[in-house]
Amino acid sequence: MSQKSRVIIGGTSHIGFSIVNQLKSDQKANTFVSYRNQDKFNEFYEHHDLTGIYIDFNEPFRMNTFDQMEQINEVIICYGEEWFELFHECNGKAIEQYINAYITQFTIMLTEFTRRMIQQKSGKIILIGSIFGEVPASYEAIYSSVKAYQHQLIKSLAKELAPSNVQCSIIAPGVVTGGMTDRLDRETIDVLKSDIPTGQFVTAETIAEWVEFLLNQLDLSHTGQVISLNGGWHIQ
């Protein structure tokens, strides 16, 4: 039996790197990691047994990107970039580029994944979304709206693809320690933590552990569900 193929979109992000490390002991999967910055990819994965795939979501998605793979069994999507800005001050060109990268190209890419999984009659898609894909966010209106679209698409695909034995899940973290918090001052961090019942931010390692858990689930019962990791900040 051939090995399964696992694709991690956004593998050079802080979260993506943690996911790759969490799953690296799985000898049953060939891992493909997307990157935009070759130097960063080489720095992160010099000693890893995996294959890099160049993808720039500011450019039109190439439908032959994954032709080298005989099959696509697992997809983890964790690429993205926060956008902190008052809505009325957002630049029109920047909005267009952001929507193209995180809605248009995201959607086109998913058509390729779903087509392959329907043919295989199996597959797993995990989106690393955001708490702000479930609840609106002031000062992050564009980011929150884009994440809401991504969440809604994955939920819709969960219904559409379930008869083909394809599981679709969303992990929606709150404030993540690392890239997000590095740009915040101490006062802002303290205010945020005081608003979170556990008083703790989410770590990339915790997200990676949940990814591994979802990949190991054989039952379809949880498909379409959102795993909210936010320390009780938002409870549905």
Automatic annotation (TrEMBL):
Pfam assignment, any one: adh_short
SUPFAM superfamilies recorded: NAD(P)-binding Rossmann-fold domains
TM region(s), chain numbering: none
Annotated family: Belongs to the short-chain dehydrogenases/reductases (SDR) family.
UniProt protein name: 3-oxoacyl-[acyl-carrier protein] reductase
Classification of source organism: Bacteria, Bacillati, Bacillota, Bacilli, Bacillales
